[in-house]
Amino acid sequence: MSKVFLVVTFGVFLLLPAAMAAPPAVQQEQTMKHDGKIETKYDGLTSETVMRLRKMKVTCSGFKDNFKDGCVSIDVALHLPGTQLNYVSNVTLQLVFETKDWQQRHSPDQRDLAVIVDAETLRLGRMNLVPKGDSTMDEKMVETLEATVPYDVFKKIALSQSVALQIGGSTVELRDKNRAALRDLNSRVIPREQSQR
């Protein structure tokens, strides 16, 4: 009987510090299922690792004031030199517009990108038109605009409570699922403090 008591007491003293150090399950942040597809690949030609949120739908009601009856999606890629996962050199942000109205293209003077993050406006410059790979005619008009932004701007977007994208005079707000996917993408970058341990 005393051997059993000794073993149980020893086990309690051994496990007690670990139980005290673990955070309560109630305090752990719950992650939202965002349905976005995130992939990480190494590109040997450019010698960089690319973490990418594949094309994810934002809305199909179009932009406010402009671009009616179309769908807007985002595609985001983090570019990390070499094979490391703790330093992002830059971020590529693409907005994909799909509509049946071929008259709704964004003219070059209507491609300036501003991002409203928690009531702060970040002006990120003019977006570039990404050429379509194939030249086949389609009943839908697909226009892809791209901008390269610094990682600290992307991080501010990913960790915000509200995000609206403004192209020219039109605005669209990211949904909760979009912001959750951006947070998930950002969480895959290893902070430098953790990588040096």
Blueprint (SSEs and pairs):
Elements: H1 2-21, E1 38-43, E2 48-59, E3 70-81, E4 90-99, E5 112-117, E6 120-126, E7 128-129, E8 141-149, H2 151-158, E9 163-167, E10 170-173, H3 176-187, H4 192-195
Antiparallel strand pairs: 1-2, 2-3, 3-4, 4-8, 5-6, 5-9, 7-8, 9-10
Helix pairs in contact: 2-3
Bin the helical content.
10-25%
Return the CATH architecture: Sandwich
The CATH topology is given as: Immunoglobulin-like
Structural class: alpha+beta
Mean pLDDT across every amino acid position = 80
Extract low-pLDDT stretches.
4-30
The number of helical runs is: 4
Question: How many domains, in number, for the residues?
Answer: 1
Ends apart, CA distance between termini? 45 Å
CATH top-level class: Mainly Beta
- What is the beta-strand fraction? 35-45%
Order of helices and strands: HEEEEEEEEHEEHH
Apparent shape? globular
Q: Number of DSSP strands?
A: 10
Strand order of the largest sheet: 1-2-3-4-8-7
Explained architecture:
The structure is a single chain. The chain is an alpha+beta fold. The protein has 4 helices and 10 strands. A hairpin with a 2-residue loop joins strand 5 and strand 6 (120-126). Helix 2 crosses helix 3.
Structure at a glance:
The chain has four helices and ten strands, in the order H-E-E-E-E-E-E-E-E-H-E-E-H-H. It has 197 residues and is of the alpha+beta class.
Keywords:
globular, 10 strands, 4-stranded antiparallel β-sheet, single chain, 6-stranded antiparallel β-sheet, alpha+beta, Immunoglobulin-like, 197 residues
